[in-house]
Amino acid sequence: MAERTEYILSKKGEDKKKYDKAAARYDFFEFPMEVLAFSKWRKLLFGKVEGELILEVGIGTGKNIPYYSNGEYIGIDISRKMLEKAKDRVEKLGRKIDLIQCDAELLPFRDEVFDAIVSTYVFCSVENPVRGLKELYRVLKPNGRVYFLEHMRCENEIGGKVLDALNPIARLFGPEINRRTVENIRKAGFKIAEEKWLLTSVFRFIVAEKG
Q: Which of 142, 124, 136 shows the shortest CA–CA distance to 60?
């Protein structure tokens, strides 16, 4: 058990370093997809978010902040450098948003506190996605919803096998590209209220609620 705990802590440290290192160039590398699709999908998501207290998991550099709907927002991320970028965005946009460095698998909040939770392209990177999703379930109010933008394994088996083959390379840079995220959401106890394929079956908009 001690060896397993040390391994988990080591992996968390690796993830922090990886995303700290990527923070400076993260927006630059995502810019083409942001222009072509991501910005449109963010508008779709935040057009549906409702609630007074909203948690964004994996806020990263704060690219969702310009699209925030009304309500009080708290943003978390495992990377301090990413949060520094998000803080710059908060200040430039004149928003009041609490930013907290923590792990999605161990949220520092009491049970059933948030009206809604937002997560965009996060659960491709969380080390234990089901554990992280169960944390979202725990802190969400009984009538609350979680809004996801995610990329995942292709439903087409040939496409899925291609992503399986490429996954070890992708993992060197951060995300896994062959996760079955809809299944993971269900494993965490949620039921799927809405699912929309955005770009084939790989990129999806998902709304989940407590089962």
A: 124
Would you give the DSSP letter of residue 38? I
Domain ranges in the chain? 2-210
In angstroms, the CA 38 to CA 183 distance is 23
Residues in the chain where the model's pLDDT stays below 50: 1-11
Give the Cα separation of 143 and 52 in Å (integer): 13
Q: Which CATH class is domain 2-210?
A: alpha beta
What's the full length of the chain, in residues?
211
Summarised one tens digit per residue, pLDDT across range 15-29 is: 677 777 777 777 778
Pairing of strands 72-77, 53-57: parallel
Give the global pTM: 0.89
Q: Nearest Cα to 55, choosing from 84, 97, 15?
A: 97
H-assigned helices in the chain = 2-33, 39-46, 80-93, 129-139, 157-173, 181-187
Cα separation, 14 vs 8, in Å, equals 10
- Could you tell me the two tokens for 115? 């009206």
